[in-house]
Amino acid sequence: MSYASHSVTKTLVGQQGVWPAFQKAAAEKKPVIGSWMMLPGQSIARMHAQMGYNFVLVDCEHGDIDDAAMHVTVGTIAAHGCSPIIRIPAPENFLVKRALDTGAHGIMCPMMSTAEEAKALVSYAKFPVPKEKLAADPSLISGIRGVGSPFCAAAFGQSLPDYIATANQNTFICVQIESAEGLANCEEIAKVPGIDALLVGPNDLCSSLGFVAGDHPNIPEVQDAIARVLKAAHDAGKLAGMFCTSGEQIVQRAAQGFDFMNLGFDVLAIGAWNATELQKVQHLM
């Protein structure tokens, strides 16, 4: 297996978050595995967080999760020692702000197409660095994130001053490569300082390349594109992620060298279980 040489020496201050999970996984030569939540509800969030996953992806792009539910969900997941990551709908400043103000340990942004978009996203997610610190270390990334949320620190088990001082280092920023344009620019996107990971969205990528979305496992051109994103991430010292819908896919992608994956999602689990069990009683209906 080939795992990224990303700076997993990062230490998440306070409550467990995604960086300690990556540290442990790198040391053990294993991937980080998370869940994917599309349905709203504190009880559902608690169930996800208690199952042993390293993170729960809170899907505010395609999921049925509004702003209020997003706040409740993040707090519940973090309170159970799991890392909440929010998928925002688009790379917009106000969406990044609302997501991180919940205390999310990170964000995932869909449809990243260019390095310029990635740079803007990073700026939205980083607080301005005090000029004294920036003068002492010009490599620090200073952004334009506003300071104002009274909720964000709790999800990290920190005071607000400590959160503000450490959030730029601790917040995980992942972008999805899932379009032909994003694929063409994936090497430059991966090199953007502050971008921590690239995650392949195989269905949209397949569709953007001119194929039927669900057919991606059997299309060599799409599989070559996935391998290109994996290489781009690792060549830049970043983490590479893959959207998976089964344990078999996770095993396959881990062997390929991906650093993190999700194991399906809640709506899929409900549908699959019902379809399987309903078939057993079909003769009674």
Entry summary:
This protein has 13 helices and eight strands. The protein has 285 residues and is α/β, with parallel strands linked by helices. The protein starts with 17 loop residues before the first helix and ends in a 5-residue tail after the last helix.
SSE topology:
Blueprint: H1 18-28, E1 32-37, H2 42-49, E2 55-59, H3 67-79, E3 83-87, H4 93-101, E4 106-109, H5 115-125, H6 131-136, H7 160-170, E5 172-177, H8 180-184, H9 186-190, E6 197-200, H10 202-208, H11 220-235, E7 239-242, H12 247-256, E8 260-262, H13 266-280
Parallel strand pairs: 1-2, 1-8, 2-3, 3-4, 4-5, 5-6, 6-7, 7-8
Helix pairs in contact: 2-3, 4-5
Series of secondary-structure elements, N-terminal to C-terminal: HEHEHEHEHHHEHHEHHEHEH
**Strand order, largest beta sheet:** 1-2-3-4-5-6-7-8
Question: With helices defined by DSSP (H or I, 4 residues minimum), what is the helix count?
Answer: 13
Quaternary form: single chain
Structural class determined from secondary elements = alpha/beta
Approximately how much helix is present in the residues? 40-55%
Q: Tell me the span between the first and last alpha carbons.
A: 49 Å
Major beta sheet summary: 8 strands, parallel, barrel
Describe the structure.
With 285 residues, this protein is of the alpha/beta class. The protein contains 13 helices and eight strands. It has an eight-stranded parallel β-barrel, surrounded by seven helices. The longest helix has 16 residues, at 220-235. The relative contact order is 0.14. Residues 1-16 have low confidence and may be disordered.
